[in-house]
Design a protein that fits this description.
With 626 residues, the protein is an alpha/beta fold. 48% of the residues lie in helices and 15% in strands. It has 22 helices and 22 strands.
């Protein structure tokens, strides 16, 4: 190509007769230039690129080769004959010809392969017509990738929807940009009329971007109406390898939570965990297992997992052993009700930080068996707290719940008792070495006590979806967010020893109506609420409230300076008094004195407003069925 470029450039400068007359000299110059171009191309690695994937980088490489070749040829020709045998302008023309002759075949071959593979792709029965939502760099990267790797990806991008309507009417890599979002139903009809109905919407932006610029709920609503799935694209610009597999993920319920992204004080959290021994009770549960994963990622010296369920304990221990093989991990099978066993395990490992997540959390079950809830949630917390004190644990963190605020059920009241015990321990001047921190938050999506798994099961069965009351609302956050904020609250209290007895309340955002949660889950399944799947109301269950609160009106709420965390000043109780109350409660539990235990619970947690069934049990009526 180099020789051809030089010969053509000379031919353009002279008449045919002159070219024939000086053919030997011109061919010699062309051959020399061809050798130089070949050498420069070899040295600069020009032919290492695969023509099928030729791109702008290859054009730049060709330009470098052409420039280096022209410079080298000019010097060589000047040394040979002072540039008298060929016109000097032909050298510049040759530079342009080299670029065209080297880039042209590459571009032609890539165009041929793209058309060939696209035709083959259209013949495949697995092809899927999709619309991208968001005219972004990520959308451009996805279109480029599927065009370069369409033998492996079966997506055909019909159009890109610009939800902000800024680039409508343009195109990205030949794919038209349409919009705005309000025209999406008409766009579906337009492609369906062409026999290319979209089968999926692919979101190209991050969750935070859609919260600022568009409504994911609106997209989910449209997807449900059109009966197409909605997927989320990872950030392709962050992928380390172009050959990495693109994993499209379905939109999840947590993507619909309009919550700002967390801003964590990572150094403070890491300083509390790194190089220390950490223990987690209830480590097999949804909260405890996620805490274990996040703690393990912060490089503790030793991680001790404690749970009463052999299966759950085995599952999380096996998972962490596989993902963190260098971590020193201990799995202890123990129920927090067993005071001596808890004390023995804590003394044996002597952790610096202890997260107490073990609890009974299902409101109706605890409402039906109050003594079980009292034993695990209240007495179990005391057992762990006293073991932590005797082992000189630096910080014990109690994972509590918003149901402990003005509790209307036994579960919430037992958690409030647990909070009171830890607050009293933290405030007591005789307890100098151990901090007792309480972290309170609302419902967690996907946890064992969450309503979401039940809704998903009902949707898979074709409905109906059961909601207790149309006005019921709850605070929600993801398990990962909740555990990250628990760590942040613990790190904050660890750094501020003077703030004793406070309850740290996680900022849960705005409450969500349970019926809206159910509707969104139905839409995410690709079906329409009240049309494809019915929603029925079953009435409030014993102990349930229409809404939950994160703090009591008697608690003074204040900021902490830590993102996402508030602090409720304590309604303190003396340690000696709470110890006597817990001693009495333990005796009533041992004696199976249900009415007495409930009356003591009510007198201890004054804001507890039990339901009618619990009132009957407190009076000693109908207690035999429990």
């Amino acid at each position: 190509m180099g020789a051809a470029a030089m010969f053509l450039s000379i031919a353009l400068r002279f008449d045919f007769d002159i070219v024939v007359k000086n053919l030997t000299n011109f061919l010699g110059a062309a051959a020399l230039f061809g050798i130089i171009v070949g050498g420069a191309g070899f040295l600069l690695g020009l032919n290492r690129g695969i023509w099928r994937y030729a791109s702008l980088s290859d054009l730049l490489a060709i330009t470098y080769v052409a420039t280096a070749s022209v410079a080298s040829f000019t010097v060589a020709q000047f040394l040979l004959d002072r540039l008298t045998s060929i016109p000097r302008s032909s050298i510049l023309i040759a530079w342009a010809f080299v670029i065209v002759l080297l880039a042209g075949p590459r571009a032609a071959y890539r165009l041929y392969r793209n058309r060939h593979d696209t035709g083959r792709l259209f013949d495949r029965s697995t092809r899927k017509f999709v619309l991208l939502v968001g005219a972004t760099d990520n959308a451009d990267a996805f279109v480029r990738t599927i065009k370069e790797r369409n033998s492996a990806l079966s997506f055909v991008v019909l159009a890109i929807i610009d939800e902000r309507d800024r680039r409508t009417g343009r195109s990205i890599r030949g794919v038209p940009v349409l919009g705005p979002l309000e025209r999406l139903p008409q766009i579906f009809d337009q492609f369906e009329a062409q026999g290319r109905r979209p089968e999926a919407l692919i979101l190209t932006r991050s969750r935070e971007d859609y919260q600022r610029h568009a409504s994911i709920e609106a997209l989910v609503e449209i997807a449900a109406q059109q009966k197409v799935e909605i997927l989320r694209l990872p950030n392709l610009l962050d992928m380390q390898s172009i050959d990495a597999e693109i994993e499209l993920r379905p939109i999840k319920l947590e993507d619909l939570l309009q919550r700002p992204p967390l801003r964590l004080d990572v150094p403070k959290i890491a300083s509390m965990i790194e190089g220390r021994t950490v223990m987690i009770t209830g480590a097999g549960g949804s909260i405890g297992s996620e805490l274990a994963r996040q703690v393990a990622a912060l490089n503790p010296r030793t991680l001790v997992l404690l749970d009463a369920s052999e299966h759950l304990l085995y599952s999380i221990a096996t998972e962490l052993t596989g993902t963190r093989p260098s971590l020193e991990l201990h799995a202890a099978l123990c129920n927090v009700r067993e005071k001596d066993a808890v004390n023995t395990i804590v003394q044996a490992h002597r952790p610096q930080v202890l997260f107490h997540a073990a609890a009974l959390k299902h409101v109706p079950i605890v409402e039906a068996q109050p003594l079980e809830g009292l034993f695990t949630n209240a007495i179990g917390t005391r057992n762990v707290a006293e073991a932590a004190l005797h082992a000189n644990v630096s910080t014990m963190v109690l994972v509590s719940t918003d149901k402990a605020v003005n509790p209307a059920n036994v579960m919430g009241a037992t958690k409030r008792m647990a909070e009171m015990f830890c607050q009293a321990m933290d405030i007591d001047s005789q307890v100098n070495g151990t901090r007792f921190v309480t972290v309170r938050f609302g419902n967690v999506l996907g946890s064992a006590g969450s309503v979401v798994p039940l809704f998903e099961k009902q949707i898979r069965a074709g409905g109906p979806v059961t909601v207790t009351h149309p006005d019921m609302e709850r605070f929600f956050m993801t398990i990962s967010e909740a555990c990250l904020l628990v760590l942040q609250a613990a790190a904050h209290s660890h750094a501020r020893q003077e703030e004793r007895g406070r309850i740290y309340v996680l900022d849960m955002g705005s409450p969500v109506k349970i019926v809206d949660l159910a509707r969104n889950l139905i839409r995410l399944s690709g079906r329409r609420p009240d049309t494809d799947i019915q929603i029925i109301y079953t009435g409030l269950r014993p102990g349930e409230k229409l809404y939950e609160e994160l703090f009591d009106n008697k608690e003074t709420l204040s900021g902490t300076g830590a993102s996402g965390i508030l602090a409720a000043s304590p309604r303190s109780i003396e340690r000696e008094l709470i110890v006597r109350i817990f001693d009495q409660m333990k005796r009533r539990i041992d004696a199976q004195d249900l009415p007495g235990a409930l009356r003591l619970l009510k007198s201890t947690v004054g804001e507890f407003t039990p339901g009618s069934e619990i009132h009957l049990l407190m009076s000693g009526k109908d207690s035999s069925k429990h």
